[in-house]
Write a structure and sequence with these properties.
- By secondary structure, this protein is mainly alpha-helical.
- Helix 9 packs across helix 10 and helix 9 packs across helix 11.
- The chain is elongated, with a radius of gyration of 19 Å.
């Protein structure tokens, strides 16, 4: 198969598996999404979804968030890990949203990426899921699967994002990145996954990945 044919196979298979695409992080507006995505760094979405209701019950907007101290935020979000950095980031970006953007989340990559603790991936998730702007946020699942499917050399997430954007049609990016995340969780985990159930890797996977998998079975 050519790279284009592999990409088409991925699109068709994921559309069959995930005609309806659930959003991984619970939120109600751009601000709560921004905070949830920030919390998800090196933390599972399941854990984030357990913590955000507690946090948002106290503050689900920047005006209420800055009434809390960094220490109070840190205590609530501690189970998500990296709580010292994340609590400062949440408190700091809430101040900036009030001071510069009338309490609203800005609708540009550039503005989002200047906020404390907000990197390119977080900005991409917010732009795609909150504002419907085409983006292709690359998390660990997408990075792993794009390599397994021989659609990128997998050297770093920047290259993986670039390759994904080059290979998949722009109008599919927002749905596709979520579909790949769900597929990675359910069928193509980092360790101990079942290649027989992982139809995409089994069909179009990188030979070295499949050989390595088979070697471990022996």
């Amino acid at each position: 198969m050519t790279k284009k044919e592999r990409a088409t196979f991925v699109i068709n298979t994921l559309n069959d598996l995930y005609p309806e695409i659930p959003i991984p992080l619970d939120h109600k507006d751009p601000y709560t999404l921004l905070v949830a995505v920030l919390l998800s760094a090196q933390c599972t979405d399941v854990r984030v979804n357990q913590i955000t209701p507690i946090l948002f019950a106290k503050a689900d907007n920047p005006y209420d968030m800055i009434k809390m101290s960094v220490e109070e935020i840190k205590e609530i979000i501690r189970p998500c890990g990296l709580s010292p950095m994340k609590s400062k980031g949440i408190h700091g970006l809430s101040h900036i949203l009030i001071d510069k953007y009338n309490g609203e989340v800005p609708q540009s990559f550039e503005a989002l990426e200047t906020l404390p603790a907000v990197g390119h991936k977080t900005a991409s998730v917010v732009m795609s899921q909150a504002f419907g702007v085409p983006a292709f946020p690359v998390d660990t699942h997408i990075h792993r699967l794009m390599y397994r499917w021989n659609l990128t050399n997998g050297k770093n997430v920047v290259q993986t994002e670039k390759d994904a954007k080059a290979i998949f049609p722009k109008e599919l990016w927002n749905d596709l990145h979520l579909q790949i995340i769900w597929y990675g969780r359910e069928y193509s985990q980092a360790r101990g996954w079942d290649l027989e159930k992982d139809i995409i890797t089994k069909t179009i996977g990188r030979k070295s990945v499949i050989n390595e998998y088979n070697k471990k079975l022996k």
